[in-house]
């Protein structure tokens, strides 16, 4: 791990708002008070590198607050393959004795739970609830990756942008100001289009009153962005049915 990061000590698992849908989702408060391993609470700054593709995966991570990007190296540089938010996990390859598959970088100041993989492996061997919770979270991450790939392969550029915004904002009230710590280039790469094309689409959405954006924050009219996303998908399905 590199960059500005501070170990805040042991994470307060019993009072953590995300533990109900994290890898500890099957545990009650009494279990959480007697965890057989240390869970460290890391305060990281924007740009901190938390894992590096190809290196031994001796630590696993859970995002408590903030956003993290996962990248993989290709012939023409690094490619953004996944965006992680509160409750998401990565670095669990070590449970299968595999190296990290991604380089993970904090997109903004974040709080991260860090677990020693060896201790986690021993715990999983003793407690089926933890194994099942980890499996569920990894399956969810795999499903989200497949959904994103399908979006890239089967949708127009405008629908890709609408689909991304609807997923990014889905856990917040309609119209709330939400952090969007991606540069235009990062967002364009993630959505498989040029920066210029993305900028034109975002400008149109702003003119139409669908989004408001300023200085790393965005406000989305969730119903309207979902209508763009769902309406075109329904039209595409109807075309397939009639062909």
**Low-pLDDT segments:** 232-243
Query: Number of folding domains?
Result: 2
Mean model confidence by pLDDT: 85
Helical segment count: 7
Walk me through this protein's architecture.
The chain has helices at 29-33, 117-126, 128-154, 157-168, 184-190, 195-207, 222-242; strands at 5-10, 39-44, 49-51, 59-65, 68-74, 77-84, 89-90, 103-106, 110-116, 178-179, 211-214, 217-220. With 243 residues, the chain is an alpha+beta fold. It has two domains: 5-152, Jelly Rolls (Sandwich), CATH 2.60.120; 155-242, Winged helix-like DNA-binding domain superfamily/Winged helix DNA-binding domain (Arc Repressor Mutant, subunit A, Orthogonal Bundle). It has a five-stranded antiparallel β-sheet with strand order 1-2-9-4-7. Strands 3-8-5-6 form a four-stranded antiparallel β-sheet. Helix 2 crosses helix 3 (128-154), helix 4 crosses helix 7 and helix 5 packs across helix 6. The radius of gyration is 19 Å and the shape is globular. It starts with a strand and ends with a helix. The model is unreliable at 232-243 (pLDDT under 50).
Walk me through the topology.
Blueprint: E1 5-10, H1 29-33, E2 39-44, E3 49-51, E4 59-65, E5 68-74, E6 77-84, E7 89-90, E8 103-106, E9 110-116, H2 117-126, H3 128-154, H4 157-168, E10 178-179, H5 184-190, H6 195-207, E11 211-214, E12 217-220, H7 222-242
Antiparallel strand pairs: 1-2, 2-9, 3-8, 4-7, 4-9, 5-6, 5-8, 10-12, 11-12
Helix pairs in contact: 2-3, 4-7, 5-6
């Amino acid at each position: 791990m590199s960059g500005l990061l501070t170990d805040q000590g042991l994470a307060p698992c019993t009072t953590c708002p995300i533990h109900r849908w994290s890898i500890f989702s099957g545990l009650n408060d009494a279990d959480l008070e007697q965890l057989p391993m240390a869970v460290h609470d890391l305060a990281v700054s924007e740009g901190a590198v938390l894992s590096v593709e190809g290196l031994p995966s001796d630590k696993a991570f859970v995002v408590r607050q903030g956003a993290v990007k996962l990248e993989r190296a290709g012939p023409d540089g690094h490619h953004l393959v996944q965006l992680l938010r509160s409750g998401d996990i990565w670095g669990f390859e070590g449970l299968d004795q595999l190296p990290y598959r991604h380089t993970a970088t904090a997109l903004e100041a974040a709080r991260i739970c860090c677990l020693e993989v060896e201790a986690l492996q021993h715990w999983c061997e003793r407690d089926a609830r933890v194994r099942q919770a980890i499996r569920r979270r990894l399956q969810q991450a795999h499903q989200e990756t497949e959904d994103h790939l399908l979006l890239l392969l089967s949708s127009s550029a405008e629908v890709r942008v609408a689909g991304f915004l609807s997923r990014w904002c889905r856990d917040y009230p309609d119209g709330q100001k939400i952090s969007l710590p991606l540069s235009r280039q990062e967002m364009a790469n993630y959505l498989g289009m040029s920066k210029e094309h993305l900028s034109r689409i975002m400008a149109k959405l702003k003119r139409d009153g669908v989004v408001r954006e300023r200085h790393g924050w965005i406000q989305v009219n969730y119903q309207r962005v979902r209508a763009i996303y769902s309406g075109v998908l329904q039209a595409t399905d109807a075309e397939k049915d009639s062909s």
